[in-house]
Amino acid sequence: MTVRFSATLEGKPAEWTEAIGRNLATAVTEGMVEAWEKGLKTDLRSQVNAVVQSKAMRGGGTMLGNAVRARVYPKVYGTVSPRSSAEVYATYSAGDILQVLSQGATIVPKAGKALAIPTAAVPRLAQNQRMTPRQVEARTGKRLTFIPGKGRGGRRIFPAAMGALAVVGPEPAAGKGKRRRGRKPQGRLKVMFWLIRQAVMPKKISPEQIAQGWADRLPALVQAAAARLTGNQT
C-alpha cells in the first residue's frame, strides 16, 4: 500500500514571489546600512578621533574623524535592492591625512637638508603649534646657532640627530664673579630644534581590519533584518 500526500497552492504565486523579493531587497539594504553606515563608519571615526585626541597629536578635536562618511546604494531614500552596496570615504582633503594614518609615511625635508624638530623649549603659537626656526629668531632677536652632530674625531654628540639649532646665552659667572683661568667664555646653549634627515610616521589606524570585521558580520545582520520583516526570530 502506498500513501500519497497532495497539496494545492491557493492565491497568486506572483504576489508571493514579489513579496519575498521585496523582503530580500529590504533585508540586504538594511544589513548594509547597519554594517557600513552605522558600524564601520562609527568605529572608524572613533579610531581616528582617539588618535587625533591623543597626547602625541596634541589633543586635537573631532573634525578629522567626522570627515569619515558612508554611503549606501541605491542612494534614493526608500529604495532597496538585493544588490545593495556601500562605501566609506573621507571628505575633501581629509582623505590624504587618513591615508597617512592608515599606511604610515616617511617625511623628508621639502627644501634644505634636514627637518627641524622643535624641543619643549620652543614657544607655541596661538594655534598651539610650535614656532619655526625663523619665528624663534624673530621672537628672541637672536640667531640660532648650528651645533654639528659630530665633534672632533668624528665622535657623535647627538646619537639620533645630525645636529641641532640652539640659542646661545651668557655664561654664568664662576666663583665670585671671576672667570676661570685658561677658558674662553662659551655661553650656555639651549637646544631649540633637533635636525634630522627624515621622520618615519608609523601606521596609526586599521580601516581594513575594521571593514573585514563588519563584512564578516554582514550575513548575520541581513538574516536579522529578514527575521524582523517576516516576524520570525532566528
The total strand number stands at: 8
Largest sheet geometry = 4 strands, antiparallel
Q: Which series of helices and strands comes N to C?
A: HHEEHEEHEEEEH
Please, how many helices?
Answer: 5
With strands numbered from the N-terminus, the spatial order across the biggest sheet is 4-7-6-5
Strand content: 15-25%
Give the quaternary arrangement of the chains.
single chain
Protein name: DUF6441 family protein
Pfam families: DUF6441 (PF20039)
Report what the structure shows.
Pfam families: DUF6441. This is DUF6441 family protein. By secondary structure, the chain is an alpha+beta fold. The chain has 2 domains: about 15-105 and about 200-230, no CATH class; about 115-170 and about 185-200, no CATH class. The protein is about 35% helix and about 20% strand. It has helices at about 15-50, 65, 95-105, 135-140, 205-230, and strands at about 70-75, 85-90, 105, 115-120, 145-150, 165-170, 190-195, 200. Strands 4-7-6-5 form a 4-stranded antiparallel sheet, with no helix packed on it. Helix 1 packs antiparallel against helix 5. The longest helix is centred in the first third of the chain and has 40 residues, at about 15-50. The radius of gyration is 32 Å and the shape is rod-shaped. The two termini are about 40 Å apart. About 15% of the residues are buried. The model is unreliable at about 1-10 and about 180-185 (pLDDT under 50).
